[in-house]
């Protein structure tokens, strides 16, 4: 009934708005069906306002990619010679032709758009559903995420006028669906917290077998306790979905686990899209507390920024990823390391959008920023455990221009954590730096899982750290959490401490890590993880094996070996 009524309404509106001249519309993007977990609730009200964003085609992405690899590959003469903001912007700014074509189209359709990125490649504007349907030959409808009740107005396909082809990259939100659950880890409390002696890290405290604390990570990965010295070397932690990082909890955490540093050590708050950071103890967020406690508490002396991204963003349920990357790209001196423990299944996103965001990470990488994301917590079934037949890769882990962090557990031996998401992208082809590592794995794997994963896709994760039984403080209580959400901040701390030493020695920060990690020197500085697997989709998932594997990547870090590997 709903569908019939909406059809009539839409036809009427098309008559009113339709121009008499035949339009030459070209299908631009479509998806095969509604993503798992969502259902169609009916047509969207024609007068409902849609906040849309439009990306223009960037001018020279191939050259950006070439330069990114050039400055990130240790054997290159230009290794570490990162690009300036202006150099990157010049490479990717849309051409005047594209700007003119899109402006002419906006004018013709009476659309008042606002530029929202530094290079003018992203615009935003508001139109009623009826006009959006007309402009893009779309069918914007109301979809609901059944489990959380989250509602989204989306279309399963859209077209653009032929004259915009090659100029307009994508319209969002259209076929990309939101990820209402994020990757949030589950907090279990209370547990018996044991204070540990903090003077020596030579041996791994036996308590690390049941709970992981900073002392455990320092011992397992040889992370130094000495203070970093470079105040310019910032580590940024992103926070979404009203996850607040609680200062009092951080203090309790440091008082218990870092008696060697001031318990008042904290982070600096940055906000965007109306983000805030409530200090009401009952609103402390598991993810935000975990991420700040394991950066401030591990990256000793490194200035940590907590970037709280609010709900005012208009980026269509992408959790603010788009706004975050535009915000950081506009900074003259961005943080050297950014860690994000959120993500979503790749198949919920438009491939154009995934590629666009991935290129934004390449831009930051070219400027010397290390972009780290947690790989996800559903093993081969994606960001979170779900039923599936084919394996589900996660975003942005499939993007070749960032570093995806998986999880391990235990230390004798250190083993893959079974929730550690890993696999192969369906959107991004395998990058050169990874081909030999991945083909070695696929060969060793034989026919296991064949047909369930894309053997030509970018493999992930790249690296792993401990990710189970992390002890945190939440609302004044001690408890533990599991997830690759634990791993990304841990790695971010290690990379930040390496950057501090590099900068002190007059060298560049590491920037985009992967070409280094996959080099012989980089891989040799990691502990290869060869046991465990990441079950899902009714299978045992991928087994960890010697060398790279899609559960633990190349392995886990060893700070002392990494110091040598980076030439210190
Ligand atoms: C910490 O060190 C003290 C003195 O060296 C010792 O008595 C105590 O047992 C140690 N505690 C732990 C948990 O190792
Ligand atoms: C703290 O948050 C809780 C839950 O949101 C709320 O009920 C309470 O009133 C808040 N307390 C203060 C002091 O704002
Ligand atoms: C597999 O990955 C390749 C490379 O990214 C891609 O072109 C292809 O479409 C993918 N296949 C499927 C079935 O998704």
TrEMBL record:
Active site, per annotation: 287 (charge relay system), 291 (charge relay system), 485 (charge relay system)
Subcellular location field: Secreted, Extracellular space
Keywords: Calcium, Glycoprotein, Hydrolase, Metal-binding, Protease, Secreted, Serine protease, Signal, Virulence, Zymogen
GO terms for MF: metal ion binding; serine-type endopeptidase activity; tripeptidyl-peptidase activity
Pfam families referenced in this protein's UniProt entry, alphabetically: Peptidase_S8, Pro-kuma_activ
Free-text remark on how the cofactor is bound: Binds 1 Ca(2+) ion per subunit.
Known cofactor(s): Ca(2+)
First and last residue of the signal peptide: 1-18
The keyword Acetylation is annotated on this UniProt entry: no
Residues annotated for Ca(2+) binding in this entry: 528-529, 547, 549
Annotated PANTHER family: PROTEASE S8 TRIPEPTIDYL PEPTIDASE I CLN2 (PTHR14218), TRIPEPTIDYL-PEPTIDASE 1 (PTHR14218:SF15)
Protein name: tripeptidyl-peptidase II
